[in-house]
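Teaching note: in complex prediction, the entire set of molecules is handled at once rather than each chain in isolation. The prompt given to students was simply: 'Predict the structure of this complex.' The entities are:
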Amino acid sequence: DTGVSQNPRHKITKRGQNVTFRCDPISEHNRLYWYRQTLGQGPEFLTYFQNEAQLEKSRLLSDRFSAERPKGSFSTLEIQRTEQGDSAMYLCASSFGGVRSPLHFGNGTRLTVT
Amino acid sequence: QQQVKQSPQSLIVQKGGISIINCAYENTAFDYFPWYQQFPGKGPALLIAIRPDVSEKKEGRFTISFNKSAKQFSLHIMDSQPGDSATYFCAASGGLGNTPLVFGKGTRLSVIA
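The expected output is the structure of the full assembly:
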């Protein structure tokens, strides 16, 4: 299967701990996006990369969140000092081309902060 | 400020009926309007998309109607089937700032036999 892969699928952590998620995009895709989705809501944009460059971050993105995409391949999203409000599904998507290109989503990492 | 407003929140349709979901957007610079379908436990998947230079696009049982002057677009699902039961999201992107996709809050569709 050559779709977008996200790991882990589920993560339970205690408030104040750091967590890191990984996303492996479709190999030929140059753009990689991170979105957050809470129950009953649509995906909310967090940040995106073109190759290894991080081009945009949402103004809503706390400085506790950081993302990397070394060598323009896989990406990691780290949340430091987690809070209960961080509990959500974190979705990764990739595309070939710009913002008018179809996004291919992974199945997400569900984070629960206790 | 929500850039894309979607309605209804939920929808129940009889098998074989027509499902209609509406979306309104704020930013007149948006120039790409897709609809995504999401099943429980899965990520959203692109269903159909339209650019503002056409007023309608049809792919199989799915049709997007687009009204640029009203800043509205809608998804029509003809001959709705139980397998269409899912959550549907409208979205918009583009413009001079190359805004990444912003999504509506979603419509949960249930198709009953």
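Point out the following to students. Chain A is about 0% helix and 50% strand. The CA atoms of residues 6 and 38 of chain A lie 17 Å apart.
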